UniProtKB/TrEMBL annotation:
Residues 4-124 form the HicB-like antitoxin of toxin-antitoxin system domain. It comes from Rhizobium herbae. InterPro entries: Arc_rbn_hlx_hlx, HicB-like, Ribbon_hlx_hlx, TTHA1013/TTHA0281-like. This is Type II toxin-antitoxin system HicB family antitoxin. Pfam families: HicB_lk_antitox.
Length: 134
């Protein structure tokens, strides 16, 4: 099990956001601190599982000292977010999408530090959670 530093951010009239200095572009949010922490664990797991599935390396977690040495990170509150590689087994699936949709997914995923699989999983869970809340 690895523990990564997540930074909680809260602006007036916003949800609690969580970012990961070791994985720029991997962000999550929740209406309260408990939800923000759960969503952060999910976002981290999806991203790392996508990296594993794509055969890409996973960086070692940075120390708290290294993370907080960056003045931009001092605006957030540091939390530890666990990643258990065996907690969820990634399953390969074959999906058919329109070519332009796939291009848009790839552009968005790359711009936000995600893999294609990580983005699709995050988007699916977002819609499921949105439907459950309705």
């Amino acid at each position: 099990m690895r523990h990564y530093i997540g930074l909680i951010h809260k602006d007036t009239d916003s949800d609690y956001g969580v970012s990961f200095p070791d994985f720029p572009g991997v962000i999550s949010a929740g209406a309260d601190l408990d939800e923000a922490r759960r969503m952060a664990e999910e976002a981290l797991a999806l991203h790392l599982e996508g990296l594993i599935e794509d055969g890409l390396p996973i960086v070692e977690p940075s120390s708290l000292e290294a993370v907080m040495a960056d003045p931009d990170n001092r605006r957030g509150v540091a939390i530890l977010v666990a990643f258990k590689p065996d907690a969820k087994k990634a399953v390969r699936v074959n999906v058919t999408l329109p070519e332009e949709v796939l291009r848009q997914i790839d552009r968005f995923a790359e711009a936000n530090g995600l893999t294609r699989s990580g983005f699709i999983a995050r988007a699916a869970l977002h819609e499921i959670n949105r439907s459950d809340a309705a």
